[in-house]
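Troubleshooting: if your tokenizer reports a length mismatch, compare against these two reference records.
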Amino acid sequence: MSAAAPVETSFRVTPRAAAQVAEIATREGKPGGGLRLAVDAGGCSGFQYRFAIEETPAEDDLVIQEGPARVFVDPVSLELLAGAELDWTEALIGAHFAVKNPQAVSACGCGTSFSVG
């Protein structure tokens, strides 16, 4: 399978998040790029989400396509994101990407750190 080919997965990207990915990639001079979403060990609760705009996916990345936007996820992170949804949230405290992850049994107030059961 080609690294750039869209992949069907139980991880979902909302249209609102996809629009922000495309807008941010263009603003950062990487039109056609994508958002890297990774799960790293660390944070207050055991795992934390990491976001970055990248021009191309890594060779072993899965590419989730939503409209013109792409999200790059490595296979290990995808296991921790199964059934999750990436959304864009706007609130008084600011706008940011939010992951609604059914595997997360607890999260800390920062919204980027979680633990699994």
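Reference record two:
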Amino acid sequence: MSDKNCLITNDVETTSIVNHCLSDSTGKLVLEQGMPRLLELYAKYDVKATFFFTGYIAKLYPEVVKMVLPYGHEVASHGLSHKVEDAFDILSLEQQIDHLTISKQILEDICGEEVISFRAPAARVNNNIASALLEAGYKIDSSVSSQRLDMFLSFGSLKKMNWLATPRNPYFTNPENIFRKGNSELLEIPISAIGLPYIGTFMRISPLLNRMTRNALYAETKLSGRPFNFLTHPNEFIDEEKTVEKVQRRSKNYIGYLLGDLLRHQLKTKNLGHKAIPIFEKELKFFQKKEFNFITCKSYYNNKKMINASK
């Protein structure tokens, strides 16, 4: 397996960034604008990407799943719902298994392929998720973001403190603790971060700071072979009208509302829609110039298992 791998991972959901809520009409724009724009861009640079779909958007618009198949992209699970009350760090083990099993079945019925990769909505997980994923038949998780420091601008920040001590390279997890190495069959592929996360949101907020983060991560990759795992969302690439004046309050805690709702919303609305495409394209050009291999989570897992088996 090449030591220069780039995983472009996409969370597909009905979240309206502009209106700070879940919206079926946003899902339609993801289908009609966001996905086609990304698929065209990925085809231009021969990117094989992983798309994490919520079960909700997959049932609402099955075509949003089907449209990635001709390009050879991977279909993966983003859980059953993106509602705050369905976050995986607050669901019981039994509820997690139910959500994972149902979302897996929805996606497999649509795409006709086995679904083995998962990312939690808002990257919110607890220690139970490793055993829940294994029980539900998954082999890959990508919800951890090692040494990422902006967790206080998002929900679930206390459990995300575990990111500070997680391994930086992909690792097979402890079945009882996803934040630790172990001997399970579940591979964790951390979302790239080095203090700041390397994700679509920060790319849009500050392209310059994002490039600095990417360059620091590239220096690390040259030393350790750590793959890039860039996270973005098709709803970042849609042109959507603002219809809600007041930012919805999702947190009962005022500080959580101030940071996770108000401040986060103001930051996330910068460079949305068609303006995000040329910014993202510069990132893909970087990896193409540096001769990275654009690879799906499933392919990375299969390659890693093959290497481990040969040792």
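Descriptive notes for reference record two:
- The mean pLDDT is 91.
- The chain has one domain: 5-310.
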